[in-house]
Amino acid sequence: MEEKEKSSQENSDEIKEYGQVTMSHKIHLITVIGEVEGHECLPANSKTTKYEHILPQLAAIEDSREIQGVLVLLNTVGGDVEAGLAIAEMIASLSKPTVSLVLGGSHSIGVPIAVSTDYSFIVETGTMVIHPVRMNGTVIGAPQTYDYFKQMQDRILGFIASHCQAKRERLEQLMLDTGMLTKDLGTILVGRRAVEEGIINQVGGISDAMDKLHSMI
Length: 217
Hints:
The structure is a single chain. The chain has eight helices and nine strands. The chain has helices at residues 2-18, 51-63, 81-92, 110-115, 143-162, 168-175, 192-196, 206-216, and strands spanning 20-22, 27-37, 48-50, 69-79, 98-106, 119-122, 127-130, 187-190, 202-203. The strands form two sheets. Strands 1, 2, 3, 4, 5, 6 and 9 form a seven-stranded mixed sheet that branches. A two-stranded antiparallel ribbon has the order 7-8. β5 (98-106), α4 and β6 form a beta-alpha-beta unit. α2 (51-63) runs parallel beside α3 (81-92).
C-alpha cells in the first residue's frame, strides 16, 4: 500500500514539474506544450517545454528495461529550432515503440516532433502550421544570413519528409504559401487535412493512440 502511494506521489510530482509520467503497462507519457524553450529562459508566466528536461528523460527511457513504449502529447506553438530538432531526433532514434497525438495544435517546430514517432494521430480540431524559419533579434543583411536561413529550413524539411508520407517538394509549397496567412507565409492544416497531406498517419484521439501503442508493444 505504501509503495503504491509513493509511486502515485512520484507520478504527481513528475507531471507537475516536467509533464511526464510512467503509466500502467510501462508506457511513458511525454507532453510538449506551450513554447519549446531553447538556450534562453522564457518569462516565468509562459508555458514552456524545456529540452533539458526532455532529453535526459528520453535517454533514461531508452536505457530502461521496464518502459515498453512512449506516448507523446502535443499542444505547442513551436519555439526554438535547435531544441525542437534535438527532441525530434531523440524520439526518432528510440528503439521503443512511439506514438504521438496532436491535440490543440503542433505548430512550426512542433511539426518535426509530431512526425518523429513511429505512428502519429491528430484530433479532428487539431491544427498544424507549417511556415518558414523566423528569427528574433538583429539580422545581418548579408548573403551568409540568407544561406543560414535556407540551411535551417532544409534541415526541418528534410527531417519531416523522412518521417512521414509527404514529399519534400509539397512540404516546401505548404511552407511558402502566400494565400492563407494574410500577414505571413505558410499553411494551416486542420485535423483530417494533415492526414490527407501525408504528414500525420491518422485522425483519432487518446483511446486510438493508446490502442495503437499497445498493439505495437
